[in-house]
Amino acid sequence: MSKDLGLPVLVLDEPTPTLFVDFDGTLHRGHALLDGSGRVSLDTGNPLFEFAPLLVSLLEPYPRVEIVLTTSWLYKFSLERVVSYLPLPLAKRVVGTTHGIKSRFGYLQDGSARTYIIRSYVFAHRLKNWLAIDDSVYGAYHLNTSVLELEPHLVLLDAKKGIGDTEAQQRIRNWLTEVHGAATS
């Protein structure tokens, strides 16, 4: 308990490395379009999940990393169907989603809803070692708390580049190296 307010102290002590993964603007360039027969294509004409093999390669040396999906595809499809689009090495890492976590109206208005939802998941699961790769993680500055500074955990992607961007790949590599080092020390 906090001595000052009598409130429980939030401790982020779950060490499992967790990667929050969006689909659109992250694992491929563009946003999904659903036709009348349930087929998915991208508004850019690019291939679906063009960068998924890259993420498989980045994660391959780190078998402990788990994935939590943040994609809005979960509003249209079942979890099973959403996971079925991923290559098996990524699908096997999926341990959860942020689907079902509701954002406050003000965060929807100012564009920081995705960041708030991820932060809520982090708090609920007490995650210590996590990174979010997403083209919609805005507003971290006003969602920081005394327990958690969000900026180091968020990789805001350019939707036209996704994780194909070399700077984004380097941030992911740095995080993987850091959490692997923490786990082995």
Could you explain the architecture of this structure?
The chain is of the alpha/beta class and 185 residues long. The protein has a single domain (18-184), classed as 3-Layer(aba) Sandwich (Rossmann fold). 32% of the residues lie in helices and 14% in strands. The protein has a five-stranded parallel β-sheet, with helices on one face. It has a two-stranded antiparallel ribbon with strand order 2-3. Strand 2 and strand 3 form a beta hairpin. The two termini are 29 Å apart. The mean pLDDT is 88.
Tally of helical segments: 7
Strand order of the largest sheet: 5-4-1-6-7
How would you sum up the global shape? globular
Low-confidence stretches: none
Strand/helix succession: EEEHEHHEHHEHEH
List keywords for this structure.
single chain, 185 residues, alpha/beta, Rossmann fold, 5-stranded parallel beta sheet, two-stranded antiparallel sheet, 32% helix, globular
